[in-house]
Amino acid sequence: MNYDFNFDVIWRNWELLAEGLGLGLFLAIVSIAIGCGIGLLAAFGMLSRHKILRWIAGGYVSAIRNTPILVLILFCYFALPQLGIALDKISSFIFTLSIYAGAYLAEVFRSGLMALPKGLREAGLAIGLTEFKIKTNIIIPVMFRNVLPSLSNNFISLFKDTSLAAAIAVPDLTFYARKINVESFRVIETWMVASMIYVVACYLIAWLLRRLEQRLAVPR
Amino acid sequence: MSPILTISGLHKSFGELEVLKGIDLTMQRGDVVSLIGSSGSGKTTLLRCVNLLEDFEQGSIELAGEKIGYREDGAGQRRRLSEREVARQRAMTGMAFQQFNLFPHMTAIRNVMLGLIKTKKMPKDEARAVAEKWLERVGMAARSDHYPGQLSGGQQQRVAIARAIAMNPQIMLFDEVTSALDPELVAEVLAVVRDLAVDGMTMLLVTHEMRFARDVSTKVVFMHQGRIHEEGTPEEIFGAPKTERLQGFLANSEI
């Protein structure tokens, strides 16, 4: 194979790539934050005494988890406007990624909630707390700490999934890489660098999250 | 003097299984009543009914002159009180559990402060002062900034007792508080309970520690198959058991 590697065009465009990476991180952070809220509601819904709530939450989770994320992205961006819900590209993508994350986190939270000892709730009741205060002061904080490792994994997956935003021309890292590729024809260099940036970013995120886990973990 | 706790005609079932078959029990302020009996006799369920962790189908429990858990509506129907009412009444009792059930994400002092702040609406400084006082009382002041996972079972149980009693309950309920402990840790917890008894705290306790029950109780209640089978002073129950069932139970227990 005779291929002359030439990374010049990539170095010339590093600002674009950095910008794309930054946007990807932003999308992932906002989506996981919203997704945590949705996931928490869905998890409580799935564990509810009320059949209707269990039904709604369970239906949401299986519908989303059994649809490819690319299809969801395209549906939200192209089909929802036809139904009168028009969002700009970035909002539409955040919306999609949030409900997608919500469905997966619902499962994480549900098993986290089920793993908590029953005695925690009873101890809360015994000191006169209402169910709501028990959830906000005890159940959710303890569960959250216990599921942090799964939450980190989900965040990293979600960050990688932001590359799909390029499909609706959201200018993330993948979008700019494709642009550089098309303009320069440096196929190998472009995708090699883009891959490397994802690898390094994910590695750094994982390292940061592990430190966060250690800080927040329940001491023992 | 009107009784602090009056249980009358209490019935409780888990599905088909009737675990309490008509319990009558009266306690005066300062009484220390021990519930003894083999497992499955209903003693823990009775305790849990008193702080409404279990609902019950028949009978009534009156605490400090107030019927708890249920009310009768105009048509004479029995209705469960609202969650808020039940929570308020629960705070009138303090409960220590077999498994301690401390909140693992909070330090010892935080565990004690939570109910004071959230239920009693106490300002933080005041809650901290009250919590410090009670942790001191149970010998845990030096560890008030430790998390439950960093404490031994005996230490956790002492914090749990402080958490319950800091709420200033009318009556303390102890549910086999030493059963989950290693033998060498039992004494430190019993010492705390004894100390509270000496201090005049009204207490209802489920225990397997017969010697302890004999030492601290003003009354001992022997339960069998959901009924009170025999009751009396510790001297009567341990010194001169009347029924064969109690004699048999005591013969199999370590005293």
Key features of this structure:
heterodimer; A: 220 residues; mainly alpha; MetI-like fold; 0% strand; globular; B: 255 residues; alpha/beta; Rossmann fold; six-stranded mixed sheet; four-stranded antiparallel sheet; 9 helices; 12 strands; 36% helix
Please summarize what this structure is.
The complex is a heterodimer of chains A (220) and B (255). Chain A has 220 residues and is mainly α.
Say which CATH homologous superfamily of chain A is assigned.
MetI-like
CATH level-two architecture of chain B:
3-Layer(aba) Sandwich
Structural class of chain B: alpha/beta
Overall average pLDDT of chain A: 93
Q: How would the global form of chain A be characterised?
A: globular
CATH architecture of chain A: Orthogonal Bundle
Q: Tally the helices of chain A.
A: 9
| Uncertain spans of chain B | none
Subcellular location (chain A): Cell inner membrane; Cell membrane
Pfam family, one (chain A): BPD_transp_1
GO cellular component, one term (chain A): ATP-binding cassette (ABC) transporter complex
Function (chain A): Part of the binding-protein-dependent transport system for glutamine; probably responsible for the translocation of the substrate across the membrane.
Structure description:
The complex is a heterodimer of chains A (220) and B (255). Chain A is mainly alpha-helical and 220 residues long. Chain A has one domain (7-216): MetI-like fold (Orthogonal Bundle). Chain A contains 9 helices and no strands. Chain A has helices at residues 8-12, 14-46, 51-65, 69-79, 89-115, 118-126, 131-161, 173-184, 187-216. In chain A, helix 2 (14-46) runs antiparallel to helix 3 (51-65), helix 4 crosses helix 5 (89-115) and helix 6 (118-126) runs antiparallel to helix 7 (131-161). Chain A starts with 7 loop residues before the first helix and ends with a helix. The model of chain A has no long low-confidence stretch (mean pLDDT 93). With 255 residues, chain B is an alpha/beta fold. Chain B has one domain (5-252): P-loop containing nucleotide triphosphate hydrolases (Rossmann fold), CATH 3.40.50.300. Helix content of chain B is 36%, strand content 25%. In chain B, the strands form 3 sheets. Chain B has a 6-stranded mixed β-sheet, with helices on both faces. In chain B, a hairpin with a 2-residue loop joins strand 4 (58-63) and strand 5 (66-67). In chain B, helix 5 packs parallel to helix 6 (183-198). The two termini of chain B are 34 Å apart. The chains are: A mainly alpha (220), B alpha/beta (255). Chain A binds chain B through residues 117, 119-120, 122-131, 133, 137-138, 141-142, 145, 218-220, and chain B through 51-53, 83-84, 87-88, 90-91, 93-95, 97, 99-105, 114-115, 118-120, 147, 149-150, 160, 163-164, 167. Chain A: Residues 21-209 form the ABC transmembrane type-1 domain. Chain A: Belongs to the binding-protein-dependent transport system permease family. HisMQ subfamily. Chain A: GO terms for molecular function: transmembrane transporter activity. Chain A: InterPro entries: AA_ABC_transptr_permease_3TM, ArtM/GltK/GlnP/TcyL/YhdX-like, MetI-like, MetI-like_sf. Chain A: Keywords: Amino-acid transport, Cell membrane, Membrane, Transmembrane, Transmembrane helix, Transport.
